Amino acid sequence: MEDYPLQTKTTRRIDLMPESKEARQTALVELLTESPYYSQQEICDAMKAAGFSAAQPSISRDLQELGIIKFSGRYLPPSALKEKLPEGLTDAIIPAGPYMIVVRTKLGAAQRVAAEIDAVSIEGLIGTVAGDDTIFLAFDDPSQQAPALDFLTQKLL
After folding, report:
1. In a 10 Å sphere around its CB, with 0-12 CB exposed, 13-18 middle and 19+ buried, how is residue 117 labelled?
2. Strands, E, within the chain: which ranges?
3. 151 and 90, same structural domain?
4. Are residues 63 and 95 in the same domain?
5. How many domains is the chain built from?
6. Taking a C-beta distance cutoff of 8 angstroms, is the pair 105, 88 a contact?
7. Is residue 5 one of the residues assigned to a domain?
8. Same-domain check for residues 50 and 110
9. Where does residue 139 rank: exposed (0-12), middle (13-18), buried (19+ CB within 10 A)?
10. What would the pLDDT profile of 124-154 be if each residue is shown by its tens digit?
11. Domain shared by 92 and 145, yes or no
12. Which residue segment(s) compose the domain that 39 sits in?
């Protein structure tokens, strides 16, 4: 009899249920709904702990695609703020120079809408002034105006 060397097969790990983008994004929204996260690195670490591959560029794309915003330093899914901001009371949202946004509302609705905007704690918002149908929002840094403008437009119009 001939001696044949023992051959071993190399095996490759195959995930039977590959991670889908949808599953990762669903887990991301659940994660942000359950606990506060203040950096993308914290989110990456939590997603890895939950069993998802989570590189920072992927998380960044997911946050953008899902409409997740960062206010008061915390990442929040749109559903977390949906109930807080009254819809249908706003007519226009207009940038006014680099530090301000003007919100035009239905007559008599400005103070209610301004109170709800204040309750959301928009990052960089240092004050609101509401009249009958107009709200002025002042920001401490021009870089915070654009994200706030996008958020308010999405939530109020």
Report:
1. buried
2. 69-71, 74-76, 90-96, 100-105, 125-130, 134-139
3. yes
4. no
5. 2
6. no
7. no
8. no
9. buried
10. 999 999 999 999 999 999 999 999 999 898 8
11. yes
12. 21-81
